Amino acid sequence: MTKRYSGVSAIADLDLTVPRGTVFGFLGPNGAGKTSTIRILTTLTNPTSGTARVAGESVADRAAVVEHIGFLPEEPPLYDELTGREQLEYVAGLRGHEDWDRVESLLDRFDLDGDADRRVETYSKGMKQKLGLVQALLHEPEVLFLDEPTSGLDPRAARTVRDTISEVAAADTTVFLSTHILPVVEELADTVGVLYDGDLVAEGAPDDLTGSVESGSTLEDVFLDVTSERPGER
């Protein structure tokens, strides 16, 4: 698929497949096209050309896709005037997934149970991030899109997020993980894709990618190598 803005390509003929129940680490420098890709896959914008399917549904059918996905954007969509619990109850009601035991379980898991009856406007950035992730997980989605899920979190909360990603993937949820924190991707991802200037310039298992550079290389080395020059100059 391709996405252009005012004639400029944000994504150029992107073609990728993410197997069910795997974690796909989606990397790229700022402006590479990651946000445009995620917005297309979560039905927030349309591709200029081409198409995509998520959980077997065309992204052209927003209602069908949204039913199958959870999404944590970099800035979680929360209502400041609601309490944390009210926010989750509202979203659960919209989705017709009013499993209050699951709400309480997730609040407890992310250490939000003691603050659930406070208004969201009083939450720290890290608390809002955790609430946004709980919101994305509530309905047990088939595909989970995460954009910088550990942003603003202390080490303990970040560990909980990483453990949760591993667990939902083991339970057959597909996780599309976009982050600049490369050790998180090295730990969690089954496959990694690197986007640069709208082109997918590297894709493969982390070990395969690091092995393609030189002995002892890290994912950071791979990232720097494949984004050091424009694909057309490689």
Query: What is the H-and-E element order?
Result: EEEHEEHEHHHEHEHEEHH
Anisotropy-based shape: globular
Radius of gyration: 18 Å
- Protein structure class: alpha/beta
CATH H-level name of the domain at 1-55 and 174-234... which superfamily?
A: P-loop containing nucleotide triphosphate hydrolases
Helix count?
Answer: 9
The order of strands across the largest sheet is: 6-7-8-3-9-10
Q: How much is the average pLDDT?
A: 93
Q: Determine the CATH topology of the domain at 1-55 and 174-234.
A: Rossmann fold
Main sheet: strands, sense, barrel: 6 strands, mixed
Which bin fits the share of residues in helices?
Answer: 25-40%
- Poorly predicted runs are none
- How many extended strands? 10
Q: Cα distance, first to last residue?
A: 22 Å
Describe this structure in words.
This protein has 234 residues and is α/β, with parallel strands linked by helices. It has a domain at 1-55 and 174-234: P-loop containing nucleotide triphosphate hydrolases (Rossmann fold). The chain contains nine helices and ten strands. The chain has a six-stranded mixed beta sheet with strand order 6-7-8-3-9-10, with helices on both faces. It has a two-stranded antiparallel ribbon with strand order 1-2. A two-stranded antiparallel sheet has the order 4-5. Strand 4 and strand 5 (57-58) form a beta hairpin. It starts with a strand and ends in an 8-residue tail after the last helix. The model has no long low-confidence stretch (mean pLDDT 93). One of its GO terms (molecular function) is ATP hydrolysis activity. Residues 1-222 form the ABC transporter domain.
